[in-house]
Amino acid sequence: MKITLQKGDITTIEADAIVNAANTSLMGGGGVDGAIHRKGGKAILEECIKIRNKQGGCKVGEAVITTAGKLKAKYVIHTVGPRWNNGNSEEVNKLKNCYLNSLKLAEESDIKSLAFPNISTGIYRFPKELAAQISVQTVQTYESKTLENIIFVCFEEDNYKLYQKLLK
Ligand code: AR6
Q1: Which atom of ligand 1 lies at the shortest distance from residue 159's CA?
Q2: pTM above 0.85, yes or no
Q3: In Å, how far from its chain's centre is CA 41?
Q4: Which residues of 53-76 are buried (b: 16+ CB within 10 A; e: fewer)?
Q5: Angle at 36 between CA 33 and CA 37, to 5 degrees
Q6: Is any atom of ligand 1 closer than 6 Å to the C-beta of 40?
Q7: Are 46 and 65 spatial neighbours (Cβ–Cβ below 8 Å)?
Q8: Residues 48-70: what's their mean pLDDT?
Q9: pLDDT tens digits, residue range 127-158?
Q10: What separation, in Å, do the N-terminal and C-terminal C-alpha atoms of the chain show?
Q11: pLDDT digits (tens, 9 = 90+) for 98-124
């Protein structure tokens, strides 16, 4: 599995799937979630509503998959990161599960290239350096027979620098 780093907007990435940092309602929000729904169009929300009606949203650390609508990617994998609570709510494990469950779901869906944003490090205020360590370690130690390319997409310069250091 090749791991690469890009700076910028994940909605413009050409990968089989991009990951969304969603919330448990799956009904959209701000940050990267807002950007994905805005650019991908209503087909994404329609599938999210179907999932919500069937299973009642998505729990923290879990992941679900929908179309990517009008985006270049084929699919969006929506995962729900933990809100930072001073390390008192199993946030490290929960964030790790976001990456693991997204990777597993990608494998099940025959996805070869997958792009991740920096889950939880915006509105959910997870410390950026710790989040970068968890994501890089989880992806680097994941053994996959089908996934070929994993792309970390950093929107912010500080996150980009942290990933550059960790992926060197
Ligand atoms: N492309 C790539 N990364 C982005 C983009 C983009 N277009 N826009 C923001 N980021 P956040 P969270 C980065 O806040 O912390 C939503 O309301 C951003 O700089 O999007 O997991 C959801 O509905 C940051 O590094 O997600 C939830 O309620 C990273 O994406 C809540 O926010 C994550 O920031 C989730 O909070």
Answers
A1: 25
A2: yes
A3: 18
A4: eeeebbebbbbbbbbbbebebebb
A5: 85
A6: no
A7: no
A8: 98
A9: 999 999 999 999 999 999 999 999 999 999 99
A10: 16
A11: 999 999 999 999 999 999 999 999 999
Residue nearest to atom 8 of ligand 1 (CA): 32
How far, in Å, from the CA of 34 to the mean position of ligand 1? 8
Q: For ligand 1, pick from 23, 32, 152 the residue to mutate: most ligand atoms within 8 Å of CB.
A: 32
Name all domains of the chain by residue range, CATH numbers in brackets. 2-166 (3.40.220.10)
Radius of gyration for the alpha carbons in the chain, expressed in angstroms and rounded: 14
3-state secondary structure of 119: coil
CB-ligand 1 contact for 97 (6 Å cutoff): no
Q: Tens digits of per-residue pLDDT, 62-72?
A: 999 999 999 99
- Give the closest residue to 105 by CA, choosing from 132, 78, 74: 78
Distance CA 88, CA 94 (A): 12
